[in-house]
Amino acid sequence: MKLTETKETSKSYSNEIIKTIFERRAVRKFKEKPVENEIILELLEAARMAPSAMNKQPWHFYILTDKEKIQLFSKAILHNSKLAMLKAGVKEIVNHILHPNSFHLKDGIDFFKTDDPIFHAAPVVIFISSDRSNDWAHLDVGMCAQNMMLAAKSLGLDSCPVGFAKFIENTDEYKKLNIPSSEEINLAIIIGYGNENPKFHDRKKDNATFINNM
């Protein structure tokens, strides 16, 4: 069965992996339901299966599941990110921390209006760090994070990458993570049982060039 070119809601998929890739969404509303430790461990194992330059596996995971601690970290990041935005402006923060297609000016204006615009009251927050001296670690961590999010979707959970989690490094709460000075946080992944169904966004189709045809 081949993937059709019809609307997302009517697509068919050749296998479950392709289906999971197409159905994954960035979810920011979660049910008040904890995620079982066994599932978290399974997600970490899936993340560890990502490829990495010279098989260095540079990632390290720092997991938060305590609701009060998550709120505390979120408030600290929120305060720090406000100061950063005032200094650098929304555009610069977006360009350096978030994917340019996932954040828009209007989002920046409305960003601080929600109760928890950082971790969105998710029951699980996983910070992913890597060695500061590893030039390839950012790419490796990206593949690692994608593995984790796809695994979460396949197990009935939802997730969202949080670039603003990097701001935790500039807060008093950062020391509670016990992260060595040789490491830096790349991003965090929030995970839980989703309580929304984000719409499908069209993907660009004019960004592939077959070199052999040139």
What's this, in brief?
With 214 residues, the protein is an alpha+beta fold. It contains six helices and four strands, in the order H-H-E-H-H-H-E-H-E-E.
Radius of gyration: 18 Å
The CATH superfamily appears as: NADH Oxidase
Low-confidence stretches: 1-6, 100-106
Strand share of the residues? Answer: 5-15%
Mean pLDDT: 86
Topology, please?
Blueprint: H1 16-23, H2 37-48, E1 60-64, H3 67-88, H4 90-97, H5 105-110, E2 124-131, H6 137-154, E3 158-162, E4 183-192
Antiparallel strand pairs: 1-2, 2-4, 3-4
Helix pairs in contact: 2-6, 3-4
What does this structure look like?
- It is a single chain.
- Helix 2 packs across helix 6 (137-154) and helix 3 packs across helix 4 (90-97).
- With 214 residues, the protein is of the alpha+beta class.
- A four-stranded antiparallel beta sheet has the order 1-2-4-3.
- It has a single domain (25-53, 60-196), classed as 3-Layer(aba) Sandwich (NADH Oxidase), CATH 3.40.109.
- Residues 1-6 and 100-106 have low confidence and may be disordered.
- The protein has helices at 16-23, 37-48, 67-88, 90-97, 105-110, 137-154; strands spanning 60-64, 124-131, 158-162, 183-192.
